[in-house]
Amino acid sequence: MKLALALQLGRISNLPTVWTNVLAGALLAGGSLGDARLPLLMLALSCFYIGGMFLNDAFDRDFDARHRPERPIPSGRVSARQVFTIGFGLLAAGLVAIAWQGQAAAGGPAWHALAAACALAVAIVFYDAFHKNNPLSPLVMGLCRVLVVVTAAYAYTASPPSAVWLAATGLLCHLIGLTYIAKQEHLDRIGHLWPLGFLALPLLYGASLAVSAPLAALPLVLYAAVLVLALGLLRRRRPGDVPRAVVTLIAGMSLFDSVVLAGAGQAGAAALAIAAFVLTLALQKWVSGT
Questions:
Q1: Which end of the chain has a smaller Cβ tally under 10 Å, C or N?
Q2: In angstroms, rounded to a whole number, what is the distance separating the alpha carbons of residues 194 and 211?
Q3: How far apart are CA 2 and CA 83, in angstroms?
């Protein structure tokens, strides 16, 4: 398989958002930027993300043949069998990396992190296999990102603090709104707008953090601007506006991570999350984010 094709299947432009999810989970659970475990966690959870993206194309091959024939499988550039094999292989590699990280860190497997990673693998496969006809698929997609944060947190503690769960809940709400839009991307229009109300909840949580931690104000303003931009595109609904809103909101996950990191006093990590937002937007111009 050619590298360019693999990058397209893996939608690697969105990987920086996975890395900031890991940062949020790990640092809110007591980790630090200098911890040697962070790179391995990012690598492991990147495997889950890329594997999930490969499986998404493999499971969606019949739908794509009708609506997106330019995608790699229906266009004949790669076989579904090969994409399935790589996708499941990457999930397995991610699980091995999480298990090894736990072994190296504590002298024995970190069962909480490994259990969360197993749940993540199951959620990814379930979403990819059934999301087209499942009205709850936005919730399942959100759960996948929640489990990224939770897996990273459990790598540091067997009892993540409330900040981890609140950040994960905010991310879940962001993903519910985002996935609702993405499910209708091929139509280039949005039906009902009420599910987008979920996007207000992480914004409100960020505002509550900024009250006690003024450092969160800057990323919060940036996050709010991204939401306004995306919702403006959806309201305008010109050709191409829905896909642009989708990729903008995908990148916006890193800004939400920046808000929660800044709210926890992690200024350096919050700055890195803002940089990840910019990097995601730049990479999306090179490799499509959807």
A1: N
A2: 28
A3: 13
* Among 198, 137, 211, 153, residue whose Cα is nearest residue 171: 198
Task: Report pLDDT digits (tens) over 70-112.
Answer: 888 888 899 999 999 999 999 999 999 998 876 655 544 578 9
CATH number, position 270: 1.10.357.140
Instruction: Give the DSSP letter of residue 158.
Output: S
Which residue matches tokens 């969160």?
216
Closest CA to 259 of 230, 212, 231, 221: 221
Angle between helices 241-263 and 15-28 (to 10 degrees): 20
Residues near 273 by Cβ (< 8 Å), separated by ≥ 6? Answer: 20, 23, 24, 219, 254, 255, 257, 258, 261
290: in domain? no
Distances (CA, A) of 202 to 23, 103, 232: 17, 35, 18
| Residues of the chain by 3-state class (helix, strand, coil), percent to 5 | 80, 0, 20
> Residue 75 sits in which domain range?
3-284
Unique residue bearing structure tokens 């432009």: 13
Q: Which of 127, 152, 48, 149 is nearest to 94 (CA)?
A: 48
